[in-house]
Amino acid sequence: MKLRPLHDRVIVKRLEEEKKTAGGIIIPDQAAEKPLKAEVVAVGPGKITDDGKLQAPDIKKGDHVLIGKYSGTEVRVEGEDLVVLREDDIMAVFTK
């Protein structure tokens, strides 16, 4: 990918949610909500603090994270739908 985030920005790709409910009902694409789980594709170098030091990000490429439904800016790069957001907009990291 030829996209590099700046400062404390992060690029994520939303992960597809299950298309079927627990009861076996299939949800059509029009009724499905935006997925909240995403995979980190790229991470910027970090945030510059008030005293001029670089604060490294807490997440890394490949992490699975929880983001808000309407967080960030959606972009299409090389046919992929991606979301660019600040590290502060990430609510949690899924642990393995």
Descriptive report:
The protein is an all-beta fold and 96 residues long. The protein has a single domain, classed as GroES chaperonin (10 Kd Chaperonin, Protein Cpn10, Chain O). It contains no helices and 8 strands. The chain has strands spanning 9-14, 37-43, 47-48, 54-55, 64-67, 73-77, 80-86, 90-93. It has a 6-stranded antiparallel sheet, with no helix packed on it. A two-stranded antiparallel ribbon has the order 3-4. A hairpin with a 2-residue loop joins β6 and β7 (80-86). The protein is elongated and about 55 Å long. The mean pLDDT is 84.
List keywords for this structure.
6-stranded antiparallel beta sheet; single chain; 8 strands; 96 residues; mainly beta
Indicate the topology.
Elements (H helix, E strand, L loop, with lengths): L8 E6 L22 E7 L3 E2 L5 E2 L8 E4 L5 E5 L2 E7 L3 E4 L3
Antiparallel strand pairs: 1-2, 1-7, 2-5, 3-4, 5-8, 6-7
**Tally of contiguous helical segments:** 0
Fraction of residues in helix: under 10%
Q: Please state the CA-atom Rg, rounded to the nearest Å.
A: 15 Å
Structural class: mainly beta
Instruction: Classify the fold: give the CATH topology.
Output: 10 Kd Chaperonin, Protein Cpn10, Chain O
Provide the low-confidence segments as ranges: none
Compute the number of structural domains. 1
Q: CATH superfamily, called what?
A: GroES chaperonin
Q: How many extended strands?
A: 8
CATH C-level label:
Mainly Beta
- Which strand order spans the largest sheet, edge to edge or round the barrel? 6-7-1-2-5-8
Euclidean distance between termini CA atoms: 26 Å
DSSP strand content: 35-45%
Q: How do the helices and strands follow one another from N- to C-terminus?
A: EEEEEEEE
CATH architecture: Roll
**Main sheet makeup:** 6 strands, antiparallel
